[in-house]
Amino acid sequence: MQTLRIAMAQLSLHVGAIEEKAARVIQIAQDIEDQADAVVFPEMTLTGYPAEDLLLRMDLHERVEAALKSIADASLDLNLDILVGAPVFDHGNIYNALIQIRQGQEVKRYYKRYLPNYSVFDEKRYFEPGQHDCMTEIAGVPVALAICEDVWFDELMAEASAQQAKLMISINASPYHVRKQEQRVHILKERAKQGNMPLLYVHWAGAQDDLVFDGCSFVVDATGRLTQQAAAFREDLAVAELRLGDHGLYTPYAEELPAELSEEAEIYQALTLGLRDYVRKNKFKGVVLGLSGGIDSALTLVIAVDALGAEAVEAVMLPSEFTSQMSLDDAKAQADILGVKYHVLPITESYKALQNALVPALGENRPFGVTDENLQARSRAVLLMAISNATGKMLLTTGNKSEMAVGYATLYGDMCGGYNALKDVPKTRVFKLAYYRNTIAKVIPERVITRPPSAELAPDQKDEDSLPPYEVLDEIIERYVDYDQSATEIIDAGFAKADVQRILRLIGQNEYKRRQSAPGPRISQRAFTRERRYPLTSSFDDYLK
């Protein structure tokens, strides 16, 4: 019985680390040589994904070609094929390529045919679509090649089947959102059945800015059965064994599949990975955050500790005259549970000093209002940024997607920071994630989760004094932002007209705040990042009609 062995090298991406990635490709190929006929690396291995306008630099392409030569040179004495993704500059055009290298020579360059240009993807800005034949061979076996979007269409598989391919290999950079893996597996099962051949899907596992890549490289057989899956949200190296059987079909050996993650477990791992990679790849010494005693900062603190370790995390309580004793107690309790460095820095004096400094401009005895609430938030930001500057730790901001949508946050105040782990997490999901994390170990005090949310910037303040209940708010936001429903459609779905008009007005008015907000990991299909591009200045007022 003939056996074809393909190693799937699921790496963590790091945009621009060309020579580092080439060295890893070589090392992995050397380590796996005796166990595989070929080793396959993800889409755009040498540059990371998305490399954005770095792709327009000729010096990048010169470094990529030098890296490919170094891999080819190192493969001279290796008895396996290396398949690696990279951008290629060819006759004045840039292509998203899969390069096959064997014993010092390039034996195949396949250029991606279908270029995604929707959601977070912008590939038509950089690449030309390829026209190359998709066929190659590994260990004498005819194999078809694909790059990510190619397998979402049936034409390439039909071509591969017509040319008697025995296997399709797809290299990928497919950004995560909730339950994305289910979609991938479903599509590729259909492709495998269509072509009557197994399909290998090799993927990244790491984060780049706001995008998370969740790993889970996998194999499906010709009947569409999932036979093997690599680890989620971390690097892995898995060897797929395909055995020649009846009718010339190759059948992958079935391994025990990992347990399916719950939505909360999946999202929590994505948030943790996103924060870890952003901090480490940007070479920050750790993180600092304001710990208010509320649920958003509590969840952010746990994510930070899980991502980086307690020794790299610093929490600061910055009480004002409106901060409750409950908040003081709960913040300290959580800091103690997690073992992080913790300070209490009252802002009352600095806040009062700023109020007094404004008297010549705003007068005395003016009524307390949003100006004074924002002064408190900005007083806190000054101290937190000072700690960040002095320690080299990045400041985390802690607002959630619900707040970012309607502008329930202070620009240059609680929005101040370099990264926001909860940026794409609605408030209702924040509660679910807090409960989930406490099922592993109780690290968030119970009343932090159960108490009514409050910014504590005014006497007896509650979030729902200014906003609809979060269950209502989040569904209106989801319908309008994620699914582009109009005001009429949302109202017809049973929501109060006044609530809908107000929330949609706030979403429109606060685009300028979101443009200035910190990046954070994308977990939804429509985050406030690169896939939702609305003008800052607009008179489009659908919510009034």
From TrEMBL:
Residues at the catalytic site: E43, K112, C148
Domain CN hydrolase: 4-244
Protein name per UniProt: Glutamine-dependent NAD(+) synthetase
Organism, as annotated: Piscirickettsia litoralis
UniProt keyword annotation of Hydrolase present: no
The reaction(s) this protein catalyses: deamido-NAD(+) + L-glutamine + ATP + H2O = L-glutamate + AMP + diphosphate + NAD(+) + H(+)
HAMAP family: NadE_glutamine_dep
Gene name as annotated: nadE
Domain of life the protein comes from: Bacteria
Pathway: Cofactor biosynthesis; NAD(+) biosynthesis; NAD(+) from deamido-NAD(+) (L-Gln route): step 1/1
Function, in words: Catalyzes the ATP-dependent amidation of deamido-NAD to form NAD. Uses L-glutamine as a nitrogen source.
Family: In the C-terminal section; belongs to the NAD synthetase family.
EC code: 6.3.5.1
InterPro entries assigned to the protein according to its UniProt record, in alphabetical order: C-N_Hydrolase, C-N_Hydrolase_sf, Gln-dep_NAD_synthase, NAD/GMP_synthase, NAD_synthase, Rossmann-like_a/b/a_fold
Gene3D superfamilies: Carbon-nitrogen hydrolase (3.60.110.10), HUPs (3.40.50.620)
Binding site for ATP: G290, L291, S292, G293, G294, I295, D296, S297, T398
Binding-site residues, L-glutamine: Y118, S174, K180
CDD domains linked: GAT_Gln-NAD-synth, NAD_synthase
Keywords assigned by UniProt, alphabetized: ATP-binding, Ligase, NAD, Nucleotide-binding
Binding-site residues for deamido-NAD(+), renumbered to this chain: N374, E403, K513
NCBIfam families for this protein: nadE, PRK13981.1
